[in-house]
Amino acid sequence: MSKDLDRNNIGNAKEAGMATDLGLTSSDYSLAVSIFFIGYLLLEVPSNMILSRTRPSLYLPALMTVWGAMVIGYVGVNSKRGLIGLRFALGLIEAGYFPGVLLFMSSWYKKAELARRFSIFYCASLVSGAVGGLIAGLILEKMHNRAPYPAWKWLFLIEGVITIGCAIIAIFVLPDFPATTKWLTPEEREYAVRRLEQDDNSSRAGDISHWQSFTSALRDWRTWLFFWAQTFCTCAGTITYFVPTLMAALNYTGQSVQYMTIPIYMVALVIVLICGFSSDYFGERPKHIMAMASMSTVSLIIVATVDNAKARYTFLAFGAAGIWCCSPLTLSYLSNTICRPAEKRAVAIGFVNAFANLSSVYGAYIWPASSAPEYAPGFAVSTIFMFLCIITSLLLMILTKKYPYENTKDGRMR
């Protein structure tokens, strides 16, 4: 959750005075949001390739510690150039965390156990959105212009310290992979590995090289279809960075802008959890994705076409929830499908997540300030992408049934 507090609170910081202090225009803010994902794109795949052959209990907390220190570095930012440079560097460091955790979980849990766990992990982002809004509101209220920093710098300072504290705790509680966790007995390690192999999954690093795993993942048409499915929901998901801005467009002011983001994330939290547990219970992924994308498509159309502020607020919550449901479901569907060898799964997860996040680079520009208060371009593009998410999920459902991965050479590897 600390990662998402750091990343998502740029929207809260913007409304808390950062844009004014740094002289940010609408395009400057969009650049600061989008450049983060350039760094993300560059290092996600290499990071996952390294993680598949190292110790998660040390690697993941190390990433957390470094980006926590960099978030504290916001205190020293006094220009738009400094903000943009720090955001780029932060993207480089955070690149390995999200896909790394997905790879880590897919190496411990069976296919029918993944969606709810991916959803719980993804809900950290939603909780951080709600908590971030609460923290931002309290800081804006209690610490505005309290020496020596403005409120938005206090926001990043506090959250950077929280991140480093969480990283230290993680070192002592995270296991490694099933076959390499030293504090398990040999029998427990063997059981953890065998239960995955019986589920046609893999957690062991094998003899396949980094280059072989990379080329194997990129030659597989499934990787590319999952890439498009994740791209559509990720680009629509740039709404995350503009939720506080949308609250201001609905005529909320001051700390109310921050506090009114909380119900949006809480509604999404409930829906994402229900959907993730339901997907595991029924052992089904694509129909759940299509259902959530359909809910989002209809809701966003209503938000874009009605004038009543309360109706727009209500359907914004359901529209955003549908978007946020699709991402963890798509990634768990990917992990279930390209399940072995472990190195290929690592590359596929890293590649799909990295290049899907590239859509956030241009997605950040679909919400220009000039389109306020309707924000028609943002809602129109998000609606189209969620409709395309329905189409790609339907294609995945049809094609993965017609051409089972288990019948391929990689799918038979043990």
TrEMBL record:
Transmembrane segments: 29-46, 58-77, 83-106, 118-140, 152-174, 224-244, 256-277, 289-306, 312-334, 346-367, 379-399
PANTHER family: MAJOR FACILITATOR SUPERFAMILY (MFS) PROFILE DOMAIN-CONTAINING PROTEIN, PERMEASE-RELATED
Keyword Nucleotide-binding: no
Main location: membrane
Gene3D superfamilies assigned: MFS general substrate transporter like domains (1.20.1250.20)
Keywords: Membrane, Transmembrane, Transmembrane helix, Transport
SUPFAM superfamilies: MFS general substrate transporter (SSF103473)
GO CC term, one of those recorded: membrane
Full protein name: Major facilitator superfamily domain-containing protein
GO molecular function: transmembrane transporter activity
Protein location: Membrane
Domain of life: Eukaryota
Domain Major facilitator superfamily (MFS) profile: 1-401
Membrane topology according to the record: Multi-pass membrane protein
InterPro entries per the UniProt record, alphabetical: MFS, MFS_dom, MFS_trans_sf
Pfam families in the record: MFS_1 (PF07690)
